[in-house]
Specification:
Distance between the termini: 31 Å
Shape: globular
Radius of gyration: 23 Å
Strand order of the largest sheet: 1-5-3-4
Largest sheet: 4 strands, antiparallel
């Protein structure tokens, strides 16, 4: 049980600590397991990886009971209370099998087991989507319905989408026309660097003395008090998890050394020309390209007039077509 809890304790948290300010802190579980309650991050992980059989009953901070009937209400309940107290037993569907969960400990163990197999996709589906089934096409309206559909599939079976579909990736809507295009958006396992994951609690240095941070919610609140671009100043040593191994970090330099390298991104050499309905248009600089992109329909990318030149690792490369340009782009899974 403790192994599962410790595994969940640091999942994905380092993304928010080690990356740029445009990325938020991600999920974690409070280190202490003494409480009868689940943390808000427990609830987020459960909603993400498990299929609840609703309705379920939970207890608010003021000791009143609330009946929860779907994933959205459960997520809102966790956010509203900060901690969640579920009334057991409840039933959860895992790999097509209904399991009765009788305690918080069983719930945390189940989250840890599923979380180890589950990875958040690099993109987000735009609903509704259609999938092909033995009985014909089925329209799936939202995340909850999609999760239920996936639970109905045999283990290892992928959803059979009816294309085209749309996905959101790096805040950009992309139209996907085939299974091959969808697979191309997924990072290769070998390209996904190990990300350090903080083990809470940690202490940080402030003007008023050292401050202990208990969990990711507290870290997020603390980071919001800092000036833009300022990182937390940890009181070392701290512990992080890399590839399921706990590592003691004794300095900022050791912490920096654990960061995954960011691949070089091609930089356009201006001016470039783009194909438009009114003919080719010359774009003089990055600001002009940004302004042009804002005129395009959502999900539409600029169409370059090739050849163009780009700079990669301080080397100028001539690119003759879209395929060559895509080949130069860093894998999505390697972004910090």
């Amino acid at each position: 049980m403790k192994k599962f809890t410790n595994t969940v304790a640091a999942l994905l948290i380092a993304m928010g600590v080690f990356t740029s300010c445009d990325q938020s802190l991600t999920e974690e579980i409070i280190a202490s397991d003494a409480s009868e309650e689940l943390s808000n991050e427990d609830i987020k992980s459960a909603v993400e990886t498990l299929s609840f059989k609703y309705s379920i009953t939970a207890v608010n901070d003021d000791d009143t009971e609330v009946v929860i009937t779907n994933d959205e209400e459960l997520t809102e309940y966790g956010e509203r209370n900060g901690r969640a107290k579920i009334v057991y037993p409840i039933e959860i569907t895992v790999d097509g099998e209904t399991i009765t969960v009788n305690s918080k400990e069983e719930m945390k163990a189940l989250i840890g087991k599923k979380k180890g197999k589950h990875r958040r996709p690099p993109f987000e589906l735009v609903f509704p989507v259609n999938v092909a089934t033995a009985d014909g096409e089925v329209t799936i309206e939202d995340k909850e319905s999609f999760k239920a559909y996936r639970e109905s599939l045999e283990e290892g079976t992928k959803p059979a989408f009816v294309y085209p579909i749309s996905v959101i990736m790096d805040e950009e809507t992309i139209i996907v026309n085939s299974e091959e295009e969808l697979e191309a958006l997924k990072p290769e396992k070998g390209d996904r660097p190990a990300r350090p994951e903080l083990v809470f609690p940690v202490s940080v240095v402030t003007a008023d003395g050292d401050l202990e941070i208990a969990d990711s919610d507290a870290m997020k609140a603390y980071k919001e008090t800092l000036e833009e671009g300022t990182r937390p100043e940890f009181v070392f040593p701290i512990s992080v998890i890399v590839d399921e191994e706990t590592i003691v970090v004794n300095s900022e330099e050791e912490l920096e050394a654990l960061k995954p390298e960011k691949p070089a991104k091609p930089e356009l050499v201006f001016p470039v020309s783009l194909v438009t309905a009114d003919g080719d248009v010359e774009i003089a600089d990055a600001d002009a390209l940004k302004a042009y992109k804002e005129t395009l329909e959502e999900g539409t990318r600029p169409e370059f007039v090739f050849p163009i030149s780009v700079i990669v690792d301080e080397e100028t490369v001539v690119v003759n077509n879209t395929d060559e340009l895509k080949a130069l782009m860093p894998k999505k899974g390697r972004r910090k």
